[in-house]
Design goal:
There is one protein chain. By secondary structure, this protein is an alpha+beta fold. The protein folds into two domains: about 110 residues, D-amino Acid Aminotransferase, Chain A, domain 1 (2-Layer Sandwich); about 160 residues, D-amino Acid Aminotransferase, Chain A, domain 2. The chain is about 25% helix and about 30% strand. It contains six helices and 16 strands. The longest helix has 14 residues. The radius of gyration is 19 Å and the shape is globular. The termini are far apart.
Length: about 300
């Protein structure tokens, strides 16, 4: 392990764990936890800017919906989760931070069926700068094309932000990074362009934005924000199925997500893009939006 890496189990600060703030190093679970063995775990990824969590309410709503889709009820109110997130950011003394609410089935039952397991909830926050170097962002990142595909809604609860659905994302990103790429584009089970390993995709052609229909992957909260920002500028956004053979017809491309924010793309496999004005505009608009400095349309 690199000396620069600080393990996540050995940090200062506090984590909200099952209803109360506990010292960071004491927020532990047993190795025979259902969420670890069977993937019965949901989570959110959020960011705070200037001490305020961006779209905290929307993330909280999705957190509860993900629990429902995974067949369990989060044993706290929305108001309690909202307060927990704000409290964790404040108590750790953070201004700009990443926030991770997570809920999972506990260790009472160790089998596929775990109807009577306790549902645990934790909220952590930590300092995490931009996923990609802000100084070189406009040069664009490079994506490989993954061998793994996003599953059918008949095969997985694809609209839940569930831990198990990220297994193929980790495999895809590891394979891409091993070849010198920063991320990977994933197709879906039908062969349509879907998303990156943890971010939604947008493509630009003739001044219009095209983005895959999120019918088998998450309709990201950042994705929804970017669409709203584009339409506020009277930029046409077309949500549709995109075929791989169309990738060479676009002039710009970018991905977006809580971690990635808005990040231009310069390469996807054999296809090249030149990040330009439209990508820059949306990158700047999103940065202003999350910090509350964007001028509203009259």
């Amino acid at each position: 392990m690199s000396a620069a890496i600080i393990p996540f189990d050995d940090r200062d600060g506090v984590i909200w764990f099952d209803g109360k703030l506990v010292p960071w190093r004491d927020a532990k679970i047993h190795c025979l936890t259902h969420g670890l063995h069977y993937g019965s775990c949901v989570f959110e990824g959020e960011r705070a800017y200037g001490g305020k969590i961006y779209k905290s309410e929307a993330h909280t709503d999705r957190f509860f919906k993900s629990g429902e889709l995974m067949g369990f009820r989060i044993p706290y109110s929305r108001e309690q989760i909202l307060a927990a997130k704000a409290d964790v950011v404040a108590q750790n003394g953070f201004s700009d931070a990443y926030i991770r609410p997570v809920a999972w089935r506990g260790s009472e039952m160790m089998a596929v069926s775990a109807q009577h397991s306790t549902i645990h909830v934790a909220v952590a926050a930590w300092l995490w700068p931009s996923m990609f170097d802000p100084a070189t962002k406009m040069k664009g990142i490079k994506l490989d094309v993954s061998d793994w595909k996003r599953p059918s809604p008949e095969s997985a609860p694809c609209h839940a932000k569930a831990a198990g659905l990220y297994m193929i994302c980790t495999l895809s990103k590891h394979a891409a990074e091993a070849k010198g790429y920063q991320d990977a584009l994933m197709y879906d089970y039908r062969g349509y362009v879907a998303e990156a390993t943890g971010a939604n995709m947008f493509f630009i052609r003739d001044g219009k934005i095209h983005t895959p229909t999120p019918d088998c992957f998450l309709n990201g909260i950042t994705r929804q924000s970017v669409i709203d920002l584009a339409r506020a500028r009277q930029i046409e956004v077309i949500e549709r199925h995109i075929m791989p053979d169309e990738l060479g017809s676009f002039t710009e491309a970018f991905l977006c997500g809580t971690g990635a924010e808005v990040t231009p793309i310069s390469e996807i496999g054999p296809h090249r893009y030149t990040p330009a004005a439209l990508s820059r505009t949306l990158m700047d608009d999103y940065a202003a939006e999350v910090r509350g400095t964007r001028a509203k349309a009259a």
